[in-house]
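Tip: read the tokens left to right.
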């Protein structure tokens, strides 16, 4: 092998940050959801990803990061996989992370794929299913990583804008001109047909993603990044809970459960007309929770329903998966941890949206808008 083939790219950053102890656990959890495996040895978290390897070490008065990858794109991607979650979770600290070592010019994320709208179907009056056609989509075909980030391009744009990752691990946009991006769940992927299906909940305060879905036409272009975020783990007893934004994930998980699985799925929607047929094992009961005209994100339907569950004595046999508005998310999270005493390995629960914040505002606010209160 030539010496160029053996070339490795590496860099490190040492950051002064007095309050690091308050953030270590959520930072490590946030890094882990982005398709990274983390093992703690001594004080050092060793991180592996498809793009290379990294470390995160909290020290007195700060933390140290290292990254190592086989190519320039990989090193920028790894820096981003660390800097993104750290700067998001600790947004209020306004951290300035400076790297030493190999520097490479901004690169397109390796996981970026281009998708074109193939078909649009209104599966209810408030749910729009869009099937996209792409190429080279195999990396998105994962049962343990269900989510993705979509990048919405204006129709007919001559030169689409794609985010680049720079040597600081930050996202930079061509000509400083960003287009909107949002997180969605891959409802279905068919690598044979090279298709990805996303179900968009058409909510009442349409931001750019919902507006895009409402206006979509065959041929429209989006980018996709990911996959990310954990899916379900094997269990005898499953509890799934969420509003419309989690329904695509719940539907996908129910279809994948073993035939002898037992448990409950709780889905909050406005009313009967919003219910969808769900394919699931006979031992799992689906409960539709109706808001009956109440504003989304204002009810306690989901936390109340989760509180009604009779859990197996051996909590290790159970698994919870869910997503919803931040307030209900916080209540469910506290219940699972404090009252049910589910270990963190036995549940996956995300705050999918915030009633008074758009996604850009959530990112700018950081932990307070995203972690359980
Ligand atoms: C891991 C994950 C997976 C997700 N999967 C899906 C999915 O498969 N399908 C899906 O439809 N959504 C999904 N979401 C939720 C989706 O990303 C948000 O709802 C997103 O804010 C929609 O973007 P927007 O541009 O329409 O609104 P934003 O510009 O982000 O927000 C504008 C306004 O709308 C409000 N708002 C945002 N979402 C909702 C909502 N659902 N109901 C009522 N008001 C809302 C906000 O509070 C804000 O006031 C997921 C989110 C996460 C984090």
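Filled-in amino acids:
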């Amino acid at each position: 092998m030539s010496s160029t083939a053996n070339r490795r790219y590496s860099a490190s950053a040492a950051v002064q940050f007095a309050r690091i102890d308050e953030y270590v656990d959520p930072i490590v959890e946030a890094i882990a959801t982005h398709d990274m495996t983390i093992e703690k040895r001594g004080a050092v978290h060793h991180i592996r990803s498809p793009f290379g390897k990294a470390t995160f070490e909290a020290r007195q008065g700060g933390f140290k990061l290292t990254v190592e990858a086989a190519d320039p794109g990989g090193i920028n991607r790894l820096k981003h996989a660390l800097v993104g979650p750290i700067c998001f979770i600790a947004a209020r600290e306004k951290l300035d992370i400076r790297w030493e070592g190999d520097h490479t010019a901004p690169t397109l994320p390796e996981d970026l794929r281009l998708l074109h709208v193939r078909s649009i179907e209104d599966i209810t009056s408030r749910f729009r299913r869009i099937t996209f056609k792409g190429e080279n989509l195999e990396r998105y075909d994962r049962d343990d990583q269900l989510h993705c980030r979509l990048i919405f391009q204006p129709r007919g744009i001559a030169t689409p804008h794609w985010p680049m990752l720079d040597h600081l691990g930050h996202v930079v946009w061509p000509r400083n001109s960003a287009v909107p991006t949002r997180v969605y769940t891959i409802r279905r992927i068919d690598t044979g047909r090279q298709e990805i299906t996303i179900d968009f909940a058409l909510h009442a305060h349409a931001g750019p993603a919902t507006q895009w879905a409402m206006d979509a036409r065959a041929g429209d272009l989006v980018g996709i990044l990911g996959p990310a975020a954990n899916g379900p783990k094997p269990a005898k007893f499953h509890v799934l809970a969420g509003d419309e934004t989690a329904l695509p994930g719940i539907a996908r998980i129910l279809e994948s459960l073993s035939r002898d699985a037992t448990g409950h799925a709780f889905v909050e929607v406005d009313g009967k007309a919003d219910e969808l047929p769900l394919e699931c094992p006979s031992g799992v009961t689906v409960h539709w929770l109706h808001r009956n005209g109440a504003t989304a994100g204002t009810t306690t339907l989901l936390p109340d329903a989760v509180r009604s569950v009779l859990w197996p004595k051996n909590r290790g046999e159970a698994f919870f998966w869910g997503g919803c508005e931040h307030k209900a998310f916080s209540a469910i999270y506290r219940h699972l941890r404090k009252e049910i005493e589910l270990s963190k390995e036995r549940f996956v629960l995300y705050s999918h949206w915030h009633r008074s914040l758009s996604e850009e505002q959530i990112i700018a606010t950081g932990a307070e808008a995203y972690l359980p209160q």
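The first strand starts at residue 9 and ends at 16. The chain is about 25% helix and 35% strand.
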